[in-house]
Amino acid sequence: MSEMPTDYLNFFKMANLAKTYQELLPELAKEMEVSSLWEVPRIKKVVINVGLGEAVEDKNAVEKVAAVLMAITGQKPKEAKARQAISGFKLRKGMPIGLVVTLRGKRMYHFLEKLFKIVLPRLRDFQGVSLKSFDGRGNYSIGLSDQSVFPEVDYDKVDKTRGMEITLVTNTNSDEKSKILLKSLGVRFKELEKGS
Length: 196
Fold this sequence. Notes:
There is one protein chain. The protein has helices at about 5-15, 15-30, 60-75, 105-120, 175-185, and strands at about 45-50, 80, 95-105, 140-145, 165-170. By secondary structure, it is an alpha+beta fold.
C-alpha cells in the first residue's frame, strides 16, 4: 500500500461527517416537514461488496482483495460463499465468491466522508452520481469499476482492476427523504436529462 499524502492525513484529522449530520438535523427536519428530530432519516450502515468469480481459478485472489478492502475500510472483510455447486462454472458449495464489509458508526462516517469528498470527485469526468440508483426503500447504491480510486491503494501493486458495490442503508423507506439526506451530507447527484 502506498503512503498517504499529508493533505489527505490532515483532511482525516478534521473529518467529522457525524458532527455535520448533527448540526444539520434541525434544518433537515424543517425541509422534510417532520415534527421531531428523531424522524429525520440517518444512514444506518454502509455495505461494500466485491464479487470474486475469479477465486475459482486463482486461490490468492481472495487474500489480495481482502488486503485492499481492509486498507480502504479499516475493517476485515467477511467471505461470501457459494450456497450451491454449479459445475458449468467449476463452483463447489462453500467456495468463496466474494467479500463483504459492513461499516457502522465512526468507521462508516470516515469512509463516507472519504467517498464523498475525495474518491468520487477523483473519478474521470465526474458529473455526479445517478439519481436512478435508489432502491425504492430509501437505500442508495454506488458502483465503482476500479478500487484504485481510493488513496490507500497503491496502483503499482494492483494486479487486476476490480469493481465494488457500495450500498448506503438508511432508516427511511422514502427515496426522496434519503436523497435530501445524502445531498446535505455532500453527495453530488447528476441532473436528469429532459425526457429520461
